[in-house]
């Protein structure tokens, strides 16, 4: 069965949902929370916050280390999900990632000078980690900006939680809509969307 993974990122973790079917006839195969920050690596959950106030070379090293660690954790989680799904006969066609506004960020020095930009950069970091990891796992990636999520699809998914039981959070609904973006598109178009 053709399946897609959907993700919605937070600081240090993401909602992962594996779906099949269509938005009108959805089938949720798996849903879980994955760690994409190493709790044992200082500052990895909020690297820009941790880097604020450090000399620029140390700040750059801290952010670089957090990104590398998060990428490794995301690859591990995606490969494990793919293996579980494929072992039960599911073909993972790709992944959908809920994105932010997509505005380009300034240089690190300017990010660290603005608390608002620090929050924005951390959100982008974890979304970018998921996109990078999915691509490095050989999956086409379709991104959908959160503000562009199909509102009618989200409403149709509300009742799905009653059938499959908790948890059925906003994170999982958003990740599900992103995953269906992959299933409802041409796989080659999806791979070029990010």
How would you characterize this protein structure?
The chain is of the alpha/beta class and about 190 residues long. It has a single domain, classed as Ribonuclease H-like superfamily/Ribonuclease H (Nucleotidyltransferase, domain 5, 2-Layer Sandwich). It contains 8 helices and 5 strands; from the N terminus they run βββααβααβαααα. The protein has a 5-stranded mixed beta sheet. A hairpin with a 4-residue loop joins strand 2 and strand 3. Helix 2 runs parallel beside helix 4. It starts with a strand and ends with a helix.
Please render the helix and strand layout as text.
Elements: E1 2-10, E2 13-21, E3 26-35, H1 47-51, H2 56-87, E4 91-99, H3 108-112, H4 115-136, E5 141-145, H5 151-158, H6 160-164, H7 170-183, H8 187-192
Parallel strand pairs: 1-4, 4-5
Antiparallel strand pairs: 1-2, 2-3
Task: Describe the structure concisely.
It is built from eight helices and five strands; from the N terminus they run E-E-E-H-H-E-H-H-E-H-H-H-H. The protein is an alpha/beta fold and 194 residues long.
Q: Which labels suit this protein?
A:
194 residues; 8 helices; alpha/beta; 5-stranded mixed sheet; Nucleotidyltransferase, domain 5; single chain; disordered C terminus
């Amino acid at each position: 069965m053709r399946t897609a993974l959907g993700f919605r990122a937070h600081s240090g973790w993401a909602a992962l949902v594996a779906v099949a079917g269509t938005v009108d006839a959805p089938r949720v195969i798996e849903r879980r929370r994955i760690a994409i920050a190493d709790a044992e690596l200082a500052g990895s959950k909020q690297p820009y916050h941790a880097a604020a106030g450090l000399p620029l070379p140390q700040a750059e090293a801290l952010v670089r280390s957090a990104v590398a660690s998060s990428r490794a954790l995301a690859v591990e989680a995606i490969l494990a999900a793919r293996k579980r799904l494929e072992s039960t006969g599911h073909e993972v066609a790709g992944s959908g990632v809920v994105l932010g506004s997509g505005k380009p960020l300034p240089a690190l020095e300017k990010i660290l000078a603005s608390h608002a930009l620090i929050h924005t950069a951390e959100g982008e970091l974890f979304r970018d980690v998921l996109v990078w990891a999915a691509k490095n796992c050989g999956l086409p990636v379709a991104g959908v900006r959160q503000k562009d999520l199909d509102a009618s699809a989200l409403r149709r998914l509300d009742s799905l939680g009653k059938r499959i039981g908790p948890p059925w959070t906003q994170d999982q609904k958003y990740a599900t809509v992103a995953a269906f973006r992959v299933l409802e598109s041409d796989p080659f178009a999806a791979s070029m969307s990010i």
